[in-house]
Structures are given as C-alpha cells and as structure tokens.
Amino acid sequence: MRSVSVFANDPIWPRIGEHGPPTRVGARGLGAQVGLPPARTVAVLMYNRMVVSTEETERADALFHALADPTRRDILAVVLRDAHSVSDLARRYPISFAAVHKHVGALERARLVTKTRQGREQRVRGDVATLRTAHLLLDDLEALWRERIDRIEQVLAHPAEGSPQ
C-alpha cells in the first residue's frame, strides 16, 4: 500500500477520491506529530491504494531494474553501437563470464537486448525501441509531477479564505 497526501482545500482531491473514501487527519494531531505549532498545520487527506500488478507494470519494473545497474547500462551502450558476443562482453569487465551472462539476461528480460545464435556464439544486440518506451514512460512521469508541482504552487499562492497563515 502507498499513501497520497493532498491538501484539504485542494480541488484535485475529488478525482483522487475515486479510489476510496479519504481519512481525515486532524490539524492539531498532525502538527503535534511533525513538531509544528497548531496555527501552522494543514488538514491532510490520506488515500491508500492497492498496487495492482499488470503486464505493463511488470515490463516497466523489469526495464527500470535493468537500467538501475551501471554495468548493465554500460553493456547496453556497447551493444547499441554494434552486436557483440557474450564472451566479448565478458572480456571488457573485471567480473566473471557468469556475471556478465546474468547481466545480459536481465537486459534480455527487459527486452533491451536480443540474443541471436551465430555458430557457437550468442550475439547480443541492443533494442532502440525499448529505450524509446523507457523515454516515454519517464516523460509521462515528468508531466505528472510537473502538474503536481504547478498545483501545489497554485494552492500556496492562493490560500483558502479564513485559514490561519
């Protein structure tokens, strides 16, 4: 479960409220919890959402998990330029062949690379289309957070009438 906090006077909360009824946290109780005087506290609405796993979220998780490791990012950069065998890749790094093979496997599960067999070797090639997908996912998240920041700026610029400052 995760919680989302929204200012009580924020008109965006009814949209978020579609996921269930809010739990209202009293201003005095919240202020005491974070060490603020009661006059400076704001009522907060908390929402708990169940995280639902779908094929799309699992693919995004695998994609960002693969990109989280610096060795995998470097392997990806190498194979995006030109196809290499797993053996060639293993010679580039001060880690074992098995470790490089596991890194390539993580990249393959994320669909960032594809392996093809050429004789006894497996050639690894990067997939630019999957990188574009990652870019689009990050663009969507950036837009979401920019909207939230803009909304917070609006709320802070125009506090509700009659609320303590």
Describe this structure in words.
The protein has 165 residues and is of the alpha+beta class. The protein has helices at 13-16, 27-34, 55-67, 70-81, 86-92, 97-109, 128-157; strands at 2-7, 23-25, 44-49, 84-85, 113-118, 121-126. The strands form 2 sheets. It has a 3-stranded antiparallel beta sheet. Helix 3 runs antiparallel to helix 6 and helix 4 (70-81) packs across helix 6. The longest helix has 30 residues, at 128-157.
Amount of beta strand: 15-25%
| Tally of separate helices | 7
Termini, distance in Å? Answer: 33 Å
CATH architecture title of the largest domain: Orthogonal Bundle
Kindly state the number of beta strands.
6
Task: Detail the poorly predicted runs.
Answer: 1-49
Mean pLDDT metric: 75
Give a brief description.
With 165 residues, this protein is an alpha+beta fold. Helices cover 53% and strands 18% of the residues.
Give the SSE layout.
Layout: E1 2-7, H1 13-16, E2 23-25, H2 27-34, E3 44-49, H3 55-67, H4 70-81, E4 84-85, H5 86-92, H6 97-109, E5 113-118, E6 121-126, H7 128-157
Antiparallel strand pairs: 1-3, 2-3, 4-6, 5-6
Helix pairs in contact: 3-6, 4-6, 5-6
Keywords, separated by commas or semicolons:
165 residues; alpha+beta; Arc Repressor Mutant, subunit A; three-stranded antiparallel sheet; 7 helices
